[in-house]
Design a protein that fits this description.
The protein is of the alpha/beta class. It has helices at about 1-25, 50-65, 90-95, 95-105, 115-125, 190-205, 250-255, 275-290, 300-310, 330-340; strands at about 35-40, 70, 85, 110, 130-135, 145-155, 180-185, 215-225, 230, 240-245, 260-265, 295, 320-330. Helix content is about 35%, strand content about 20%.
Length: about 350
Amino acid sequence: MNLILAPFSFLYSQVMALRNLLYDRDVLPTFEVGIPIVSVGNLTLGGTGKTPLICELVAWALENKLHPGVVSRGYRGQVRGVELVTPNGDPSYFGDEPVMIASRFANVPVYVGADRVAAVKKMIEHQKVDIIFADDAFQHRRLGRKADIVVVDCTEAISNYRVVPVGRARENVRGLDRADFIILNKVNLATPEQKKIVLEFLEEHSTVKGTPIIEAEYYVRNLVNLKSAKRIEPSGFESALIVSGVGNPKGVEKLLVKNFDIKAHLTFRDHHDFSIGDINRALSEARRLGVKKILVTEKDAVKIVEKIRNDQREELNIFWRTELSLKLSLKVKKLHEKILALTH
């Protein structure tokens, strides 16, 4: 199969390389908007942990008296043009990740638009912001930025860094040349051998020589009941069922097995729009397994919470949202200093 797909992978890689060259030589224009932009992106398709990192950066910015904003493409949403995301808005309209961010930070403007330049301009026109985080914008080079953060999943197989459709990479690994910071994410979910392989893979490319590599660990901070909104800390080693529609379901499993006895994992495609039928299927599976908790990610929770709260069945209080946090290595100080310098 790879032999059949290899020519398409090579062609796509060359198209992306030419496009990047045209931007590097200012043949294709970039647009500066007067407010510093920090791009958070990746090389591979989905599931590396960009959105939790953006949430961590937004929380840090607020703690440091900054006024952050977020722009997003709103993948699989229905917005045409540019719109401000409302907290607890419709994820099928705005996209699940923008709604997740807006719901967590009610006073932080989140704008959705395929044209990120237009989205940023509208935000600046209507909001007071001094730093803007651009979600999934590493390849969206038309938007000028002051810093590029690339998230690398420590659990991702090196073979996935072959360009699509052979692998999962959006461009050649030489694209890391443009990175100002690399976040090596989920290091606590990888084996020591996996981590060693990924670090060697990064270090063997001259692209990342001197680029700070900031390690990040995932952990479950809280559980939030989707029916009652009750918040608790994970305790004991309870049996549970996972339901997820994310880019890297195995990564979700690796994280949650640290706190729970996972009996099964119902997986759906990334950005799946959960139906009542899906919820009933999860309930049936939980009853069959005898578990008292169904765990869902924050991204999935925004698409099912209203369905559950509007349903009168008490048994739906079995659904819990996992609130994740990142623990970043000390090198994150360099990233924080960079952002502060951009805003002063």
